[in-house]
Amino acid sequence: MTRISRRTVLMSAPALVFAPHVATAAEADAVRFGVLYPNLVSVIHAIAKKTGAYERHNLKVVETRLKSGQTVEGVEQLWRGNLDFYMGGAPEVPRLNSRLVESGRPPALAVVSGANPGHTSLVLGNKCQPKVIDEILKVRLKIAVSSLSSVHLAFFRGYLRTEKRLELNAISWQFLGMEGANMLPALLTGQIDGFLHSEPTPTLAIVNKAGHLFMQAGRGDMGPNPPPATFLSSRRDFLKQKPEVAKRFMRAIFDANEAYAKAPHEMTALVAEWSGLDEKIVAAAQERMNPTTSLTQAQAQKWWDFIGSTMIERGELSPKIKPFPDVFDLSLQPL
Amino acid sequence: MDARTQSPDAPPSPEVAERSIEDVGTEEKLTAFGRARRQRERLRKIFRGTVGVAVVLIVWQVMATAYDLELILPPPLSVARNIFNTLTLNYEQRWLYGPNIYEHLLSSFARAITGFSMAAMIAIPLGLFVGRFRTVREYVDPVIRSLYPIPGIAWIPLAILWFGLGNTAVIFVVFIAEFFPLYFNTEAGARNINPILVDAARCFGAKRLTLVRRVILPASIPYIITGMRIALGGAWRMIVAGEMLASQSGIGSVLMESRFQFRATDLMMAMILISVVGFITERLIVGTLEKKTTEKWEVRVL
């Protein structure tokens, strides 16, 4: 029988006292992450989950799923303190910060990274087969966008301005707001002549022979080095209170980036599962998407010059708002 | 149900003719007293209503200012200023919602009235018919009652599928939402007509069409008016829902776009304009109809 000496007992007392603190230190830090689901823009989160990136960085990510098209809701939840990070459509964070700046308050949110550069596609119906865009700019086409505030419309406005030296009101198109899910049936039934949207809607239209891909920003059809269409954002007070947690979160996202970049086609099944799409559609869409999430100062500035400036021109953003530091804070990325 | 008609230029009854001068004097005094009392009541009602609204506005202003809620609950003064600027087309911020507010309101109004008129043209005759004929009721009622629980908003995806995006889909959902209150109220009115009235009319030789025109329709009018009042309120609710999903114009689309822009002041402006236009529409259409029917014929639900 083993005997416990008095010395052992005395030695173990401090261990007993400090044990819970040691256990707490080892406990993962919780991060509340809002993502669009099922959706292609937020697949980097699915990859981070699947590859164990969060666990490796000692993070417990509590996921809040928002339906596609609910970017406003996501940004509102982030602003109200119900989320720590949010990944979704790009223009909403600058818009909210702009409202705050206009009313004399400091900007509450920060864009910490971005994804899906050039995710905007212009798909036209089969009846409309121009060779170059100049042939159709003065034709009364009905083009669907998710809303008049859509990032793709803002992108297209930026393209017209920088590449064609034209404003949106100088062309004859009529823009109709509708949900992405309605665009394909609307194109099939001839209610619209085309749409401006992101994946998977263009791929679905092509696969179903409803239309053809006329322009795709990712391949340089709307200018070189297209800016991102998706932003990863956070609350500034969270970044101030927990900078270490935020940095670890970003490292986990960058690990997921690496995993995707190494073998994008091995991720097809996972992307299909997360987006709720058929694997064939995802495989085809992968040619036109890049979910890896990182944003350089130059890309952020490009976004601002290309899209932000048109939003200021339209009155969506206040002229008082500046990209740095009012919108972007890229310091957390392990670049 | 009491349905009476009285012409204002009818000869005085013998009782009135036989009244003494003193009686008439007393009656005048009583009438003056009644008029003064009615005026006092009206003033009291206006005063109390104004106080109620003022209290709400003051609490709203204090809450919004004290808790710095401008971005989620803009103070009433900001909203009022925004409404004024929008109505005078002198925008404080850039207008981001396409055509001016009058065009949006006109689009919504046109959709509401078209849907309402279509619903009234179908639901009122059908309600009268079903209410008066038990056999028809037994055939038709289960069909209508089985469709009734489906909320108007649930018809929107189907409306988009059938009619595409645009006016027709929105008018269709408005029609659906307005049909049921109009139908059920008319049917109840027609079913609950006092049989004595119908028998009396028949004794005086009233044929079917005369019976409908002179007895059934006037006796059902209070119910129909109630149905119209409910239906018009519902129409504005459905207009907004429909325009938010299936239209590029109208006050619902302004509401949706202002949300995308995080412009709570514009959002509340749109809500208040819906309320004002809805109130005016109800007063103009139902109020006028009520004056021309219920009040003129002095019919009321007992």
Report the principal-axis shape of chain B: flat
Largest sheet of chain A: 5 strands, mixed
| Total count of helical runs of at least 4 residues of chain A | 14
CATH topology of the largest domain in chain B, by name, is MetI-like fold
Q: What's the number of domains of chain A?
A: 2
Strand content of chain B: under 5%
Q: Indicate the CATH architecture of the largest domain in chain B.
A: Orthogonal Bundle
Number of H/I helices of chain B: 11
CATH homology group of the largest domain in chain B: MetI-like
Share of helical residues of chain A = 40-55%
Just name the CATH architecture of the largest domain in chain A. 3-Layer(aba) Sandwich
Radius of gyration of chain A: 23 Å
Task: State the end-to-end distance of chain B.
Answer: 5 Å
Strand-residue fraction of chain A? 15-25%
Task: Using the CA coordinates, give the radius of gyration of chain B.
Answer: 25 Å
CATH topology of the largest domain in chain A: D-Maltodextrin-Binding Protein, domain 2
Question: What do these coordinates show?
Answer:
- The complex is a heterodimer of chains A (335) and B (302).
- By secondary structure, chain A is an alpha/beta fold.
- Chain A has 2 domains: 28-118 and 227-327, D-Maltodextrin-Binding Protein, domain 2 (3-Layer(aba) Sandwich); 121-219, D-Maltodextrin-Binding Protein, domain 2.
- In chain A, 44% of the residues lie in helices and 18% in strands.
- In chain A, the strands form 2 sheets. A 5-stranded mixed β-sheet of chain A has the order 2-1-3-10-4. Chain A has a 5-stranded mixed β-sheet with strand order 7-6-8-5-9, sandwiched between helices.
- In chain A, β6 (142-145), α6 (151-164) and β7 (174-177) form a beta-alpha-beta unit.
- In chain A, α11 (268-275) crosses α12.
- The longest helix of chain A is centred in the N-terminal third of the chain and has 21 residues, at 6-26.
- Chain A is globular and about 95 Å long.
- The model of chain A is unreliable at 20-24 (pLDDT under 50).
- With 302 residues, chain B is mainly α.
- Chain B has 2 domains: 14-66; 97-297, MetI-like (MetI-like fold), CATH 1.10.3720.
- Helix content of chain B is 77%, strand content 0%.
- In chain B, α4 (101-132) runs antiparallel to α5.
- Chain B is flat.
- The A-B interface holds A 72, 92, 95-96, 99-100, 103, 147-149, 176-179, 182, 185-186, 189, 191, 314-316 and B 70-71, 93-98, 160-161, 164-165, 245-246, 248, 253, 256-257, 259-263.
